[in-house]
Specification:
Blueprint lengths: L1 H16 L7 E19 L4 E6 L4 E5 L15 E14 L8 E9 L6 E18 L4 E5 L5 E5 L3 H5 L6 E15 L3
Antiparallel strand pairs: 1-2, 1-4, 2-3, 4-9, 5-6, 6-7, 6-9, 7-8
Amino acid sequence: MKRLVIGIIAAAVLVSITRSAMGQAKTVSSEMKTETATVEAIEAESRTITLKRSDGTFVTTIAGPDVKRFAEVKVGDTVNARYYETVVVRVKRPGEPETNSTVKGTTGSEQVLPGGTKARQRTITATISAIDMNMPSITFTGPNGWNYSSKVQDLEALAKVKVGDKVEIVWTEAVLVSLAREP
């Protein structure tokens, strides 16, 4: 999944650069997935829940300490999860400060049954460290040794960037979970 997202980022950087004004943000990837499963087993001490997906496969997950209403989850409950992922890329203007931050949050539901939202947003400044017009490809470097290379389809867009250009990449992930119970 991360490899796919990074590939999308590489393509998006080049698409966003073709715009006349640098510094404009562009959403390059936005995805929502929905999953429904039934609670099959609960192990309270380890906070482990076994879920049966609609295709009949099982998945086991651990409810962390941020899941405050864990004790209210019951075998037979239906778990509805919506997962969102968005990637926004912006070419930075010369002299803008570099960014390297992560923000996380969890919010519980105030509904009758447990549920809530968990989100994470990661923002980095990456530098175009190499361009190969023969391949064609582009390489980015970022904080903490982050490094990524990708082939590029759009040669015209690739010709408009140069080694040393900086981009800001913002990944946002969120999952919304709700329970349903038969009366």
